[in-house]
Known about the structure:
mainly alpha, 7 helices, 3 strands, elongated
Amino acid sequence: MDEVNASRELGVRLVQAAERLKADFAEAILPFELSVPAARALLLMDEPVPMRVLSDRLTCDQSYITRIADELEGRGFIQRVPGADRRVQLLKLTRSGIRMRESVFAAVTANNRVQLHLSRAEREQLDHLVALLLGD
Amino acid sequence: MDEVNASRELGVRLVQAAERLKADFAEAILPFELSVPAARALLLMDEPVPMRVLSDRLTCDQSYITRIADELEGRGFIQRVPGADRRVQLLKLTRSGIRMRESVFAAVTANNRVQLHLSRAEREQLDHLVALLLGD
DNA sequence: GGTCAACAGTTGACAATGTCAAGCATCGTC
DNA sequence: GACGATGCTTGACATTGTCAACTGTTGACC
Lengths: 136, 136
């Protein structure tokens, strides 16, 4: 019964830690004036990616990817390139998009709580526990 | 360099796990037709609480507590009771609020990923790691 | 070859969860 | 008694999404 409460509180703190990570991310990308989801999407674009794939990777609605793409295209960081299947649009980084992606990457990794606060062994523990929580 | 990436991905998975917890919570309280923050606030009201204290405990703006209180009062689960300091409003559970709080408590603890997926030892590990992430 | 279900992307409307600034009443202090 | 600090409220707004409906394209089956 007390165990029940301790588990719930642990859950609360876990969520707080996650929110701290998100806040760190948001703070790190502040200078670039990108929305958080746009920055996340940018980091996933190592090569031209179909929008559908992005919505899978970010686990969000396809329509949301449309809006992120609008933002990034409006800023000149990506182009929409029609795919072989002409229903598909690939999002491809422009040259300035590549630079922006590198800047974002540098900023968010320089600021990474997980790396700054945890040893390698602790990260491995955490990775294991998170996998358990996510149900494998 | 690869370590940098592994840390970032671990952070992403940690956030995913937290979002899973939040989704579990939201699902558990679905039958009660309470908003998530209202349900969280309810769980904190073991005794009459000044609104200010709630905004500290939920780490959110005071004005947001006003809205949560409006919701809970509108549903008949709490009353606003003026405190000794007459600037302060205490939120006090009504009888039906007490019952609702118990229902919510039962629903969210029955559904707790942390307890269901982790052994006691693993929960202690996780607690330690989360404390490190939160910077003590 | 024509039909039709399924799929990708877009758009508009909306929901949830907040924050911020301004204002009001009250309090404690000088 | 005046005044700055505190607690609550209200209105406006931001962020991060979801859902339903639509368009255009594809692949598969008759």
